[in-house]
Amino acid sequence: MNVGNLVKESLKAIPEPTLRRLPIYHQYLKKIDKEDFISCTTIANDLCLEAIQVRKDISLTGIVGKPQVGYSVKQLMSAIEDFLGWNNVMDAFLVGVGSLGSAILGYKGFEKYGLNILAGFDVDDSKVGTEIHRKKIYHIEKLPSLIKRMKIKIGILTLPASCAQEIANTMVEAGIKALWNFSPIKITTREEIIVLNENLAASLAVLSKKLQEQQNRN
After folding, report:
1. For the chain, which residues make up each domain, given as ranges?
2. How does pLDDT run across 176-204, given as a tens digit for each residue?
3. Are strands 135-139 and 154-157 parallel, antiparallel or unpaired?
4. Domain 90-202 superfamily per CATH
5. 90-202 has the same fold as 3-84
6. What fold, for 3-84?
7. What is the DSSP string of the chain?
8. CA 50 to CA 25: how far, in whole Å?
9. What does the pLDDT look like over 143-181, one tens digit per residue?
10. From CA 37, how far away is CA 72, in angstroms rounded?
11. Banded pLDDT at 13 (limits 50, 70, 90)
């Protein structure tokens, strides 16, 4: 098995729920930064989780705690950041500068997690050539050449369903290796490309149903 396959297998071995919990631990640790040490039991109790689950999640980062003491808060935060790649700046392009795209361009919190959105792309002549939240907006025709020239690996899609798959294909052919998709359609592409489809409608449906069930109980 070559190195690329080994990396893919190791990524598959990391449960997605763990990858989603680790940032929660990190946010929690930032709030208690004045503490020197913390245990898995304390983290679990404060976050309403099982201690054994927290311990398994943290063990994947490679950090080793001290018996009867726990983990150094600063070292644990650093271990999570290293494990998730937040210390390595990841440059990205965003395509589709509508209301959602503009909001994402303006969200400064991504920088704390190593994501640097360099520019936005659109077909709207009223937006092309302008800046939104200090990010330059280019015509989508320039997208493939700029991906290749700047060696961009991450693409963010905030497009209508009618064109999202086509633009995703263009980005992948230009060299994009990971797609973060907020468009209302599931993007499919080659197996080696990382795709995270964020389905806002599905999340809203879950929220609405839970609210309905709560009201029915009351």
Report:
1. 3-84, 90-202
2. 999 999 999 999 999 999 999 998 777 78
3. unpaired
4. NAD(P)-binding Rossmann-like Domain (3.40.50.720)
5. no
6. Arc Repressor Mutant, subunit A (1.10.10)
7. --HHHHHHHHHHTS-HHHHHHHHHHHHHHHHTTT-SEE-HHHHHHHHT--HHHHHHHHHTTT--PBTTTBEEHHHHHHHHHHHHTTTS-EEEEEE--SHHHHHHHH-GGGGGGTEEEEEEEES-TTTTT-EETTEEEEEGGGHHHHHHHHT--EEEE---HHHHHHHHHHHHHHT--EEEE-SSS-----TTSEEEE--HHHHHHHHHHHHHHHHHH-
8. 13
9. 999 999 999 999 999 999 999 999 999 999 999 999 999
10. 4
11. low
Task: Specify the residue for token string 């359609």.
Answer: 185
Rounded to 5 degrees, what are φ and ψ at 59?
A: -60, -25
For the cut 60, the answer to whether the pLDDT of residue 1 exceeds it is no
Type of residue numbered 79? A
Q: Which two structure tokens, joined as six digits, stand for 157? A: 């899609």
